[in-house]
Amino acid sequence: MSFSRFIARRLLFTPKGTRNPVTTIATGGIALGMAVMIVAVMVVTGFRNEITNKVSGFGGHIRISGFDNNNSYEENPVNRYPPFLQQLAQLKDVKHINEYATKAGIIKTENEIQGCVLKGVGTDFDWTFFKDKLVSGQLPANGDSASQLNIIVSRTVAQKLNLKTGDAMVVYFIEQPPRIRKFKISGIYETGLGEFDEIYVYCNIDVIRRLNDWNEKQTGGFELTINDFSKLNSVTDEVYSIAGYEFNTMSIEEQYPQIFHWLDLQNINVIIIIILILCVAGISMITTLLIIILDNTALIGIFKSLGATDRTIRTTFMYLAVPVIGRGILIGNLIGITLCLLQLQFGIVTLPQESYYVSHVPIDFSISNLLLLNLGTIVACLILLVAPSMIISRITPTRVIRFD
Length: 404
Known about the structure:
Helix content is 53%, strand content 19%. The chain is an alpha+beta fold. A hairpin with a 5-residue loop joins strand 7 and strand 8 (179-189).
């Protein structure tokens, strides 16, 4: 064992063999800060992933449609089999493509009335998202003509109109002349996204075609799902270059900017929290090292009088700080990871779904984020410890011995 390590080990414990209370307090501060940072990062990334998945479940990550100066929910028809579709399907970042069409209508029952948007989808639509969100009934089978008038509605709409699975639902379309369609509710879903749940009703796309007097080769547009959301902007640009300027290509962030701006604000909050906690942890370590240095001024003077260099003594106190930082980070990881796993498994902390879009605090257990957070904390603490260790160079043996 080197001289620096030997002295650091002796300073870490009291003569009775117990840990130095100063280092114990510093360890507790680092552990608490580490736990808070882990929880904050996993919660915010969980929020972003959960809400992004919900929004993309309604409209994919990228939408291709015809240009329309009208801000209504109804699209101008486009070619159902455009030449670029096969090229898009071959892109390595594109996971799935489906056609869609929407049309605004009014649901009317004996006592209630509710505006809605019928979204027509075909056999190429991926129902995975709605399978997890279905609260009763079953998804509509769009493969046969007998089930074309089967639809799924949200729990919000069903409760407002006092409807349930198996009920008939009449929808009026304001046209000249007005059109009426009678649907059968095959299932009821709930996502927690109020602004979507309140309006969207899913049906067979052939119903929308007939209502709009489109032929078999026309559709409302296309929705693309990608493999990696972090590549959204680059893939959107690539899709736009392939589809061409004749089509309106928009990413999910461009379609719903208010939601993603809100999520960006949450990211800023986490960054501020991490910076503040790192400052607190750093100040705690600086204070601890300063106290230990000042408490052992005479010892430092004796070491210098015996020929020890400033670098050797600084290394001694850095060796003292390393186990304090390591122990604090380890305890903080245990606390933070345990809390996150408990929330992930049991959903202990709940939220008002109408305000936060989720019924409980979501957790994104990312190993990469965890490793980066630990590495960043270690580096930040070690950098902050350089300044107080420089005080050692100002301590002279003659002044210390004269003081004693």
